[in-house]
Write a structure and sequence with these properties.
heterodimer; A: mainly alpha; two-stranded antiparallel ribbon; 10 helices; 2 strands; globular; B: six-stranded antiparallel sheet
């Protein structure tokens, strides 16, 4: 069987594009607006979410036969919350400046619908390996949108990428100006909207 | 075992495991985090006197080095004397001096005041004339991101540079944060004592205004000395 046809590959690849959590399922938009002013914060946020998502999926999938049905959501939530706090603590220890910029948004991964959604709909009914890949795939799907948005916003909004000036000084002398609007939250809304439009047109979704 | 008992048992076990993991994580990383917080404070002190650009990426070691070279951490007794150590610990205030070419170029006051949702921590640097604000920074707060949280942003903090804590008559009036942007019609003679506020964060501005005034009143004995152009003695360590 070809690699692209295996169940494991599909668990990872479907959420990347066809079932992208942001552009198709419209989940996790809140953080996508807040942390995409700079590429750096968007990348760190994507990595944190991917970490939380894949390990919460893995843990919940491992426990799926023993979790009592009536308290399953509470259990899911405590697993997710613990992972989020660990991610936050690690960021504070190793990437202090970025963690300050991300402020509450790492903590708010707890309430990110993607994490709880995947735990409920996927991890509870699938084996650990597949669940972990599903988590990675969704994290990567989320990250790819976040990073594209941040790329556009940082480039047009402040003329930089990852904090380095990429638009040459000459351009500014010739009258080029940064788009201040790109630094505001509504700009992210518009870019996400355009990305959704682009994806739907390309894939022929109506 | 009944299903209730099973649920409770399971919840208990989950809680214990989660809390153990969190405790281990928090305890293991604590040292590094404290160090980061320490460096961040120093960085803010340096930024307050303009020794460091906020956007510049500077290594921890470099920050420690610049700090060691230019900043002296001292105490102020209640009557405004600057001392090496706090003799009356409860009544002494911490102060930082920016030393440039063996002379005090500015003094830096720690800000620790009420905000809307929690405390606001930062630094206010005043030049040696005892009146001109050299810079203002915030390193920790719990204001709403995007609204009151803007106090940590450059555009807001830059507004403080060059403002006066004295009015024209020489009375201490502190620097106040206006409600929203200062209008063009704002009286010229009051302009040096006001900075642009943040729309949507009037209360944060109010609390911070009151807090800055409070801190400046506390340190007034020191400011008076600077104003009278007394040379502040600092012996080399």
């Amino acid at each position: 069987m070809k690699l692209t046809k295996t169940k494991h590959f599909r668990a990872f690849s479907v959420p990347l594009l066809q079932e992208n959590p942001i552009s198709i399922q419209m989940l996790g938009i809140c953080s996508a607006l807040a942390v995409t002013v700079q590429l750096k914060t968007a990348i760190v946020m994507s990595l944190s979410l991917t970490f939380v998502l894949s390990f919460s999926n893995l843990t919940i999938s491992l426990l799926r036969h023993v979790i009592p049905r009536n308290i399953r959501m509470i259990v899911e939530l405590s697993v997710i919350a613990s992972l989020v706090i660990i991610a936050d603590e690690v960021l504070r220890a190793f990437l202090y400046d970025i963690s300050k910029q991300l402020s509450v948004f790492v903590g708010l991964i707890i309430t990110n619908c993607i994490v709880m959604g995947r735990a409920e709909t996927y991890a509870l009914g699938n084996p650990p390996g597949l669940s972990f890949l599903d988590g990675l795939g969704n994290g990567a799907g989320y990250g790819s949108v976040l990073i594209s948005v941040a790329f556009i916003r940082e480039l047009l909004g402040s003329g930089k990428l990852l904090g380095y000036q990429v638009i040459p000084n000459l351009a500014y002398k010739l009258g080029y100006e940064d788009m201040g609007f790109m630094l505001l939250a509504p700009a992210a809304f518009i870019i996400i909207g355009l990305l959704v439009w682009l994806q739907n047109t390309l894939t022929g979704n109506k | 075992m009944s299903s209730y008992a099973k649920s409770i048992l399971f919840a208990l076990i989950t809680a214990v495991i989660c809390s153990l993991l969190l405790t281990a994580g928090a305890a293991g990383l604590k040292q590094r985090q404290l160090e980061n917080i320490e460096v961040d404070k120093k960085k803010n002190i340096l930024r307050a006197v303009g020794l460091l650009e906020s956007s510049a990426a500077v290594s921890k070691e470099k920050i420690q080095e610049i700090y060691k070279q230019s900043i002296r951490s001292l105490w102020v007794s209640p009557d405004g004397q600057i001392m090496d150590a706090a003799t009356v610990p409860e009544k002494s205030l911490p102060i930082y001096l920016y030393v440039k070419d063996q002379q005090v170029a500015a003094y830096i006051l720690p800000i620790n005041t009420r905000g809307l949702w929690g405390k606001i921590f930062g630094y206010l640097a005043i030049e040696r004339d005892g009146s001109t604000v050299a810079g203002f920074t915030v390193y920790k707060h719990s204001e709403t991101p995007g609204l009151g949280g803007e106090i940590e942003k450059d555009w807001f903090q830059k507004n403080f540079e060059g403002k006066q804590i004295l009015d024209r008559m020489g009375n201490l009036v502190s620097v106040s944060i206006a409600k929203g942007y200062l209008p063009d019609s704002f009286p010229q003679d009051k302009l040096p004592n006001y900075v642009d506020g943040i729309s949507g964060a009037t209360l944060t501005g109010k609390f911070l205004t009151a807090g800055l005034k409070e801190v400046l009143l506390e340190y007034e004995p020191v400011s008076i000395q600077f104003r009278s152009q007394q040379t502040i003695q600092i012996e080399e360590p």
